[in-house]
Amino acid sequence: MRSPLDSPFSPGSDTVPQVWAGRTSQLSDWRDVLRPRRSAGLYERGRIVLGEAGSGKSSLVRRITREASQAGDWVTPQLRIPSGTDPVKRVAAALLEVAQQAGLATARERRIGELLRRVESVAASGVSLSLRPGSGPEPYTALTELLTEIGRAAIRRGDIVVIIHLDEVQNIGDEDARSQLLIALGDALVHEEGVEAPGGLRVERALPIAVYLTGLPEFAVMAGARTGATFARRFQTTTLGPLDDDSLRAALQPFVTEGWPVLGATGAGPAEVGRVFMEPAAQQAIVERACGEPFLFQLAGERAWYAGGGQLITAEQVQAGWREAAPEAEAHVQRILDRLPPREHQFLETMAELAPGERTLTMIARRMGYDQATDAGPTAQRLQLTRGLIHRGKPYRFHHRAIEAYLTSSWPWS
Predict the structure, then answer these.
(1) Is 259 helix (H, G, I), strand (E, B) or coil?
(2) Which residues contact 135 (CB under 8 A, 6 or more apart)?
(3) Hey, which residues does 47 pair with through a beta bridge?
(4) Is residue 7 domain-resident?
């Protein structure tokens, strides 16, 4: 009945999972706020979606851009920025493709032809172009001008929004490249274009352009320290936390109530559609092992699917599949911990050693060897506001439940 070829689970692939869980507020933000406002010519900030590995940030924006593309919007591909590369070149090349879609390549205006040639030079040379004598304006100026022209073309087309999606933005280590890129995108977001409204009235409107940046939490510190208030005004930052268990259960409910459709053997005729069901105990077992992490949720579901071939996924199959997944689950959490600075790592380990009711800043600071609780305050603040790993309540608690389970129990091995 079921095989690896028809599994609807997809851990860690940056694709849009067929079994989708949660993130309704972020999806609603695009559908109900960002797109309607940019389409109507109203200003709205760009979006930065940050989170630890496995939080589903890239998949979230890929789902948004996929829906937008299917609706007719102009969308760049997911522009992953490898470490050590020039992001300005990457964005310039992608904008040239959108310009082609917008019909700018066939424009007869000399000004647009010169602009396209300028951006082609940026796509070839990137930020280094600004170091050449007599090379003209800075690369970010050409990017802003092309974005503006694309936005004007979208206005002429009507009800079109242009989406730029940059991923792995924490890899933009060069401050000059990062500054030029953020300024180019930010200037396009705030640009106002004069258009004629009904009745002949001349009004100013924002361009129908939306920008999504996705990456690890430290990007907010990297970019904010360099661009300061301008960066904060032009981009709205969201740090993704874990999903609640109800969202995970809801994502699996179709398996329980109606079965997940799969294609059966075709034989000589058309493919037959079968259904794979899941017993409620298996649904709960997947939810418990995922600890609210989208990656672990997909991993647990995939391994449960592989653990049998029948029509029903059982709790025993979830358990058997998870035994195979446990090393990967442990490595996933350990990678998050290994990325932390020593003081933040020590804070989490100290917090885990305390009973839940004793996790106050005073107790944690004392265990860490500080004379005053306030000495541990900045570390706690970063762990909550920047990384989203803890919640500074009374008492403190873990926000990243997989880290808590790993540090305080035998998870993922039990």
Answers:
(1) coil
(2) 121, 129
(3) 212, 236
(4) no
CA dist 294 and 187 (Å) reads: 34
Question: Longest Cα pair distance anywhere in the chain, in angstroms?
Answer: 78
Does residue 201 sit in the same domain as residue 348? no
Number of domains in the chain: 3
**Residues 120 and 228 both lie in one domain:** yes
Angstrom distances, CA of residue 300 to CA of 277, 297, 314, 407: 16, 5, 13, 20
User: Which residues 6+ apart lie within 8 Å of 49 measured at CB?
Assistant: 26, 57, 60, 61, 212, 213, 214, 238, 240
CATH no. for residue 298?
1.10.8
Do 310 and 188 sit in the same domain of this protein?
no
| Whether 108 and 212 share a structural domain | yes
Cβ proximity of 98 and 118 under 8 Å:
no
Q: For residue 142, what are its two tokens?
A: 């050409």
Do 99 and 247 fall into the same domain? no
User: What stretch of H or E contains 165?
Assistant: strand 162-167
Does some domain include residue 28? yes
Cβ contacts of residue 400 below 8 Å, gap of 6+? 52, 241, 242, 336, 388, 389, 390
Question: Would you state the structure tokens that stand for residue 188, as one six-digit string?
Answer: 């396009």
Q: pTM value? A: 0.88
C-beta of residue 239 within 8 angstroms of C-beta of residue 51: yes
The stretch 347-368 carries a mean pLDDT of 95
Give CA–CA dist 49/71, Å, rounded.
22
Tokens 């869980």 sit at which residue?
21
91 lies in which domain range?
A: 24-239
In a domain, 279, yes or no: yes
Q: Distance between CA 270 and CA 381 in Å, rounded?
A: 59
Nearest to 414 by CA among 335, 343, 323: 323
Which sign, positive or negative, has the C-alpha torsion 141, 159, 215, 219?
Answer: positive
Under 8 Å CB-to-CB from 379, ≥6 apart: which residues?
A: 343, 344, 347
Would residue 59 count as lying in a domain? Answer: yes
User: Would you give the DSSP letter of residue 272?
Assistant: P
Q: 244-295 pLDDT, tens per residue?
A: 999 999 999 999 999 999 876 555 455 667 899 999 999 999 999 999 999 9
From CA 156, how far away is CA 107, in angstroms rounded? 14
